[in-house]
Every structure is written in structure tokens, then in C-alpha cells.
Design brief:
Layout (H helix, E strand, L loop, with lengths): L1 H18 L2 H7 L4 E5 L3 E6 L2 H10 L1 H12 L4 E6 L39 E2 L19 H12 L9 E4 L6 H15 L4 E6 H13 L4 H7 L4 E5 L8 H16 L3 E6 L11 H7 L3 E4 L5 H14 L6 H10 L4 H17 L6 H10 L4 H4 L5 H12 L3 H5 L5 H17 L4 H7 L5 H17 L1 H19 L1
Parallel strand pairs: 2-3, 4-6, 5-8, 5-9, 6-7, 7-8
Antiparallel strand pairs: 1-2
Bound molecules: adenosine-5'-diphosphate (ADP) and magnesium ion.
Length: about 475
């Protein structure tokens, strides 16, 4: 009797095979069987619960119509996991959907048992300076930090898979990725932790291909419990490389292994990646790191100075933090200069020494240019759009006014030191999350729309010209 059931299902499979791409068939149907198929019930068995979700979500109609075509029956369709079905790690799987977008709905992963520490390893060396303990948390990076910590504590067991952190240069992406890796290894929350740059991930692949032996490569990357790939925007995007990244991603994802990526821009605006990769990058959590506010920059200066065994007077920390507001790497560089300069001058770190340091670095902007106020930015932006400031900051939701308002919020964020809360309150008492949302919208549009970028730069120029007039 069983033979009849499976024989019928085999006929259905042959029909399905003719209807869809060979790869897709190989991935989703080749390993299925049927233990029961009659007019009332079609029981289809698959290797893992992941397949159950995926088939139910994407292929139920195809299964139903094919059974009907072969048997003229319209039975209830039940899909379940085959008893004792082995998982197949390392198999190249293609999860692409017809629309290439939606993430497979994965069953909630069970909390992982903590693996004892000594067996955990970082496959490539990590920088010991990049730990969570050394990361100063402020409004600009709080969300990314919290997400990174959750992932490090329960890799693969949160909905943050993949976790994608993006920001401009020098704002802490590498630090956070390595801190996750370090935490997993030191606390034994994962066994094999692989932190790599996208560039290395690619060159390792290239070498493996040249040697005509990819086994060592696959052994490293597809057996990772946590795979962290830094600066994904630098990944070389030939067709073969994209396929490789896709396979690695799919394999790890299916096995509930943790994937963490960093990028210099939101995944949706990454250039040259296939849509199905971009959509995978967005399956979990995408979070950004903003420029740190003044207090955070001061805290970072104090911490880094402490690492050098130097104490920085508060007014000097404030001065340095005011001068260098764009990126933390630069801030660190300036601090190193400051300390070296004070040693060279045999004088304690002082405001004077700090001024000289900043001058020698050619960074004198805020010493000479007066601060720009939110009100000025509003006036210039409203002028540009030929509307009143009241309208700009008011309640109207008309698209063009809302866009002008968002641009203005974005410029206030960029050009002033004002905290998000103050910016929100200057725009009709809006909440700080509205400001965050507006800034994100504008940043995304700027990276993908050159005309839009030209408008925003013109407004910014007007604001700055006025401020320095
Ligand atoms: P990115 O990868 O985004 O270019 P990095 O992670 O390399 O930036 O950070 C640049 C430098 O700034 C590193 O030395 C890093 O330790 C430091 N840094 C960044 N963010 C913080 C922070 N929040 N607290 C302390 N140091 C930080
Ligand atoms: Mg980096």
C-alpha cells in the first residue's frame, strides 16, 4: 500500500520537476516523500521543520494543483518532518522565492545550551582591544550595541539573524563585530567563531578555486557557528562569488547558525549585489550607528586616554570632542597626537596644547566658524522650499512639506550638536524617534538618488554660507 502512495507522489514529483527551476526542485522537493496519499489526505514528509514552513508558505498551491492533475483528488495536504531525518550541513541550498524577497519563516530556535568555554575558538585572530567592555554606549550606538550583545549571548537563537550593522567609517562597526566574536569565545556561547573581512572571505574563496579544492574553505566558513563578515560592501561581486556567499548564507541560516554583517550603507542600497542576497541581508535585524553626540565623544576620549595612562582635564576633553565630531577613529588619532605632543613639550595636557594639536592637524573649523542654530537651518530650508517656518515645523502631512521637514531635521542633526530630543521639540514638539526616522529616510534617499542629493547639498551650502557670513 505504501508503494502506491509513494508511487503517486513520485509521479507528482516528476510533474513538479517539469514546472520549476532545477535548482529549486533539487532544494525543496528532491528530499521529500509521501507516506500517505489518497482522496482525503496527502501526507508529505520532509527533512526538517524549516522545509515544512517553507513548503507551506511557498509551494502549497503547486503541490495541490499537481496532485489534482495526477489523481483528480483534492485531499487535505499535511507536511511534516520525516522521522529520523538527517540534516545535511554544507549542502548548497538555494532559498530563492519566485519574488526573491520573503525570508523563510523559521521555527523559533531553541535556546542554545552554553558550550563549555575551552572548546570555543576564534578561527582567525581577534583584536583584544575590541571588546564590549571597551565600547562606550550612547544614544548613537545604543540599539546596535544591545542587538550585538543579544546575539553574542544567544547566537542563532534570536530573531536577529542575520544582524546587519551599518554606519559611516570609524564609528564602531568592526569594534562591535569583534566584540561579538570575543564574547562568544570567552563565554563559550558558540564553538567555532569566524570573524573575517569581506575581502578575505573573497580571496580565500579565490585561492580555493585556484587550488581546485574548496574543502578547506568550506570547512572553515560553512562550519562556523557564528560567521561575522565585516565591510560587506567590499565583497567582490562576480556571479560565482555571489553564489558562494548565497550558499554559505543559506547553509548557516538553515542550521540556525548566527550571521553578522557590517556595511557602510543600508543593505537596501548596496550596489552590485543580487536581489536575493540583498533580501537575505534584511531577513533579520538591520541597525545603524550614528555619529556620537558630544557626551559620548567625551566619554570615549576619557576612556582612551585612560588606556594610555593619561588623565585629560574635562575642559580639554570637551574641546577635543567639540573639534572632532565626525568619526571616532579620527578622535583617537587626535588624542594620540595630543598625548605625544604633551610628552614632546614636556608639559601636562592642557587646553593650549590641545589647541596647538588641533591646529597642527588642520582642524580649526569650529574655532573660527560660529555654531549654527536649529532656527537658522529651519529658516534657510523653508526659504529654499518657499514655505513658511511655521508650515515647515507644523502638522501638515503633505508629501512635499513632510520631505522638506525631514531634510531640515537631517541637516539639524548634521550641522548642530543638538540632541535628538531638542531637535524634535523645535519641530512642533515631535518625539526624538520621529527625528531618527526622518534622518534615516533622508540618508537612504541620499545614497540612491543623486538629484535629491544635489538639492540637499544646495540647502546645506546655503545654511553654511549664511553661518559663516
Ligand atoms: P568602523 O569599523 O565603523 O570603521 P571601528 O570599529 O574600526 O569603526 O572604530 C574605529 C575606532 O573607534 C576603533 O579603535 C574603535 O575601538 C573605536 N570606537 C568606535 N566606537 C567606539 C565606542 N563606542 N567606544 C569606544 N571606542 C569606539
Ligand atoms: Mg571597520
Amino acid at each position: 500500500m505504501l508503494d502506491t502512495h509513494s508511487g503517486l507522489w513520485d509521479q507528482c514529483l516528476r510533474k513538479i520537476e517539469g514546472k520549476i527551476e532545477a535548482d529549486t526542485y533539487g532544494t525543496w522537493f528532491a528530499q521529500t516523500s509521501s507516506s500517505h496519499l489518497d482522496a482525503r489526505l496527502a501526507h508529505i514528509e520532509v527533512p526538517t521543520s524549516f522545509f515544512v514552513d517553507w513548503l507551506e508558505e511557498h509551494w502549497l498551491d503547486l503541490i495541490r494543483t499537481t496532485i489534482e492533475e495526477i489523481t483528480s483528488w483534492t485531499p487535505e495536504i499535511r507536511i511534516s518532518v520525516k522521522k529520523n531525518a538527517p540534516a545535511s550541513p554544507g549542502a548548497p541550498l538555494d532559498f530563492s522565492t519566485s519574488d526573491g524577497s520573503a525570508a523563510p519563516k523559521k521555527p523559533a530556535a531553541p535556546m542554545k545550551p552554553v558550550v563549555p568555554g575551552p572548546v570555543s575558538e576564534a578561527v582567525f585572530p581577534l583584536n583584544p582591544r575590541y571588546r564590549f567592555e571597551d565600547f562606550i554606549v550612547g544614544e548613537s550606538n545604543q540599539f546596535s550595541f544591545t542587538a550585538a550583545k543579544s546575539v553574542a549571548e544567544s547566537p542563532g537563537a534570536t530573531s536577529y539573524n542575520p544582524l546587519v550593522i551599518y554606519s559611516g567609517v570609524g564609528l564602531g562597526k568592526t569594534h562591535l563585530l569583534q566584540a561579538i566574536a570575543d564574547h562568544c569565545v570567552r563565554n563559550g556561547t558558540a564553538r567555532r567563531v569566524v570573524y573575517t573581512s569581506a575581502e578575505k572571505f573573497f580571496t580565500d574563496y579565490l585561492k580555493a578555486i585556484q587550488k581546485k579544492d574548496t574543502s578547506a574553505y568550506i570547512e572553515i566558513y560553512r562550519n562556523a557557528d557564528v560567521l561575522l563578515i565585516d565591510d560587506i560592501q567590499f565583497y567582490v561581486k562576480t556571479e560565482a562569488c555571489q553564489r558562494e556567499l548565497l550558499h554559505t548564507f543559506n547553509t548557516l541560516y538553515q542550521l540556525n547558525k548566527q550571521i553578522v554583517l557590517s556595511s557602510d550603507r543600508p543593505p537596501s542600497t548596496l550596489k552590485g549585489f543580487e536581489d536575493r542576497l540583498i533580501s537575505r541581508f534584511q531577513w533579520g535585524l538591520v541597525t545603524d550607528i550614528d555619529r556620537p553626540d558630544l557626551e559620548t565623544r567625551m566619554a570615549i576620549i576619557n576612556q582612551k586616554a585612560g588606556d594610555h595612562g593619561v588623565r585629560i582635564p574635562p575642559e580639554v576633553a570637551r574641546f577635543m570632542a567639540e573639534q572632532i565630531d565626525s568619526n571616532i577613529r579620527e578622535l583617537e588619532g587626535a588624542l594620540t597626537h595630543l598625548i605625544t605632543y604633551s610628552v614632546y613639550k614636556r608639559a601636562p595636557v592642557s587646553l593650549r596644547i590641545a589647541r596647538d594639536t588641533i591646529k597642527s592637524l588642520g582642524r580649526v573649523k569650529s574655532i573660527t566658524s560660529p555654531p549654527i542654530s536649529i532656527r537658522e537651518i529651519q529658516k534657510r530650508t523653508a526659504g529654499y522650499f518657499n514655505i513658511s517656518v511655521d508650515m515647515l515645523t507644523g502638522a501638515t502631512r503633505r508629501q512635499e512639506i513632510a520631505t522638506a521637514r525631514h531634510i531640515c531635521m537631517y541637516l539639524c542633526r548634521r550641522l548642530t550638536q543638538a540632541p535628538l530630543k531638542s531637535i524634535g521639540s523645535e519641530f512642533g514638539n515631535r518625539d526624538h524617534t520621529t527625528v531618527i526616522h526622518a534622518c534615516k529616510n533622508i540618508a537612504t534617499r541620499l545614497s540612491s538618488d543623486p538629484d535629491f542629493e544635489a538639492h540637499v547639498s544646495q540647502i546645506q551650502n546655503r545654511v553654511q554660507q549664511f553661518a559663516s557670513a
